[in-house]
Write a structure and sequence with these properties.
alpha+beta
Length: about 160
């Protein structure tokens, strides 16, 4: 833990960034309105988007993000759902021109799309946020390049179907 005279670094600073964000969205329905709100207030080009992007790039470089690999995808759960994160878990994946495993979102899923190479999209969406409501399912797909994707899952709930 850092004190007030020592700035947080690495994983601790990332936790603080996520906690600040989840405080703003806690209790909101995971729907199109939240998708629009996130892209308006924290979308591509915003200071908060760039802070999260740089924290993710740094975490990958430091080895505490995307520390596992399977099926051509680097991934990892950074934080389990906890009260400090308003009951969201945090996962980050590193994908390039690939479709991941099909899964459902019992409580929904909030994704932050951070292209790294090319004009990468995630499920057809460019840089920014994508919100899936409760009960939705998909085969997460990055096309036209490489991207990091941050997943916020309410209560950490995800069900892989393949």
């Amino acid at each position: 833990m850092s004190d007030s005279s020592t700035p947080a670094t690495g994983k601790e600073a990332f936790h603080q960034l996520i906690a600040g964000l989840t405080a703003q969205i806690a209790g909101k329905p995971l729907d199109g309105e939240l998708d629009r709100w996130l892209n308006t207030h924290h979308g591509a080009g915003s200071a908060s988007f760039e802070q999260l992007r740089q924290a993710c790039i740094g975490g990958v470089a430091e080895g505490w993000l995307c520390e596992r690999e399977g099926g051509g995808i680097r991934y990892g759960r950074v934080f389990k759902a906890e009260d400090a994160l308003h009951r969201f878990s945090v996962d980050v994946v590193d994908m390039q021109d690939i479709a991941g495993p099909h899964h459902t979102h019992p409580n929904g899923e909030i994704d932050l799309i951070m292209p790294l190479d090319g004009a990468a999209t995630f499920d057809g969406r460019p840089a920014g946020w994508c919100v899936y409501g409760p009960g939705t399912a998909h085969r997460p797909t990055v096309a036209s390049g490489r991207a990091l994707v941050l997943y916020l899952l309410p209560e950490g709930q995800i069900r892989f179907t393949q």
